[in-house]
Amino acid sequence: MLSYRPNAHTTNDVVRQAIIPMTAANGSSYAQLVNRGEPKMPQKMVTHNWSNLFRDLLASVIADALEEHTFELVSALLSDEVGINALEQMIQVQGNLEDVYWICAFAVNQHSGICGANPRADVDPVTMLPHPVCSCGTPKFFNSTPPLNQHGESIHCEMNKFDDMMSFLACRDVSFAEVVAVDASLELFSRAWCMAELFEAHRMGMTQILLVRNKDTLLRRQHMLEGLRVQDMKASRQQDVDVILAKIPNKDAFNQRLRSLILDRNVGLLTAWKQADSLQQIEQLSHVLKWARLSTSVEDGLQVWQNWV
User: Where are the domains of the chain?
Assistant: First the structure.
């Protein structure tokens, strides 16, 4: 993706301009391509929104691997090649380079879904050229594409199986966890699929790990979450919203449980995050020493300290 700019391109841009063209010849997902068809069982799944910066999605995953609670420093390091190389070496030193994460942009076969159209006329934010449309010819399966199951959902569609995927992986591994990659604007909490995944993970008792840009961003914007309503949430396709809403018979009760899941002062996700962040601040010396150890173990480790402040 020659036009790629870390501070401009979203996950949607990267899927459209890198992942889809890269996998067109195979008509496969990116994960199938790079793993040469060999199944990989993930330890964690990542809930994220495609309008988030792709850099910040990766920063959230790397921050989780480095046992951080914010991704601002990692995001800064991902903005140039020297920082990227330093991070890769640091993850290797940490012993997490082979950890496997399930991310829909990579794991879902985009050629059996969205690749053949650009319905919103999305453009590259740098070149302002429309995202290309793929001509691979792979059959497409959306939510209502026959054959349908007893609930009226497409059997072959990969984009309506997230709850099944989570249940399958959680049953195979009791430690399977959800990483919630929260974008700087907290838009994730307005996305229907993201909230459906968040609630499903909670229902199944999965460990949920919140990654935010920094504490100030969270504290400044958290009031936006107090009026969360699933009826107001969005998805790239209205059909997806309809499917999610159809699965929720009592929407008012769902909204109340969702707000409690996120905002409850005793057990909510934001409370848990703040407690974990506070503990890390209390242990600030060991936190700094960890980064010092990692940065001195790699080439160009000085780059870490240049981005620390």
Answer: 40-108+145-306
